[in-house]
Specification:
- It is a single chain.
- By secondary structure, this protein is α/β, with parallel strands linked by helices.
- It is about 30% helix and about 15% strand.
- Strand 2 and strand 3 form a beta hairpin.
- The radius of gyration is 34 Å and the shape is elongated.
Length: about 180
């Protein structure tokens, strides 16, 4: 008597459902509540969509891939947490004046929200005008570091208008309408 080997792969040939249960089960969109926007109430004959308020419909812009994200901190935060920053050696207390370098905190900009109750000397890459004014009125100071790139851009902008003016003059000389 001969024995038959079992196949390693099952092809489901001759099977109605191919292993999916009853033959009607995996047929269309009915097993998932419809296709696309079905069930959301998007049609006009329904008063309240089931996904209202979820930003489901419409277009919502894009995120710039190379956007410069500026981290900022407020004066209220620094005034409230200065003792914690000193304890963690992220700030120094020198004769009642708190010295804070925002670069050490991973922050680029100082914002003016809040009230300052003590003298602060803050070093930052950028600061709002209100923040500088509030710190100075409390007897402190804000040191803003200007980046070299910003200085170079300003210098280039100073030279650029001259080139544009020369280009405009030469274009007007070549214009046939001038005569």
């Amino acid at each position: 008597m001969t024995t038959h080997k079992k196949k390693k792969r099952v092809n489901y040939r001759g099977s109605n459902s191919c292993g999916g249960g009853h033959k009607k089960k995996r047929r269309g969109g009915g097993s998932r509540g419809g296709r696309g926007n079905a069930g959301t109430g998007k049609r006009a004959d329904v008063n309240w969509p089931s996904v209202s308020g979820l930003d489901y419909f419409g277009k919502f812009g894009f995120k710039k891939k190379n956007a410069d994200v500026i981290k900022a901190v407020t004066l209220a935060y620094l005034d409230e947490k200065w003792d914690v920053l000193v304890a963690k050696s992220l700030a120094q207390d020198k004769q009642g004046v708190i010295h804070i370098n925002l670069h050490d905190l991973g922050v680029q900009k100082l914002l003016g929200t809040g009230i300052v109750h003590r003298k602060l000397v803050i070093t930052a890459d950028a600061a709002s005008a209100g923040a500088v004014e509030k710190v100075k009125s409390a007897g402190g100071s804000v040191i803003v570091k200007e980046k070299e790139e910003v200085k170079e851009k300003k210098e280039k902008e100073g030279k650029a208008p001259e080139k544009k003016e020369k280009a405009a003059e030469s274009a007007s000389e070549r214009s046939p309408l001038k005569k």
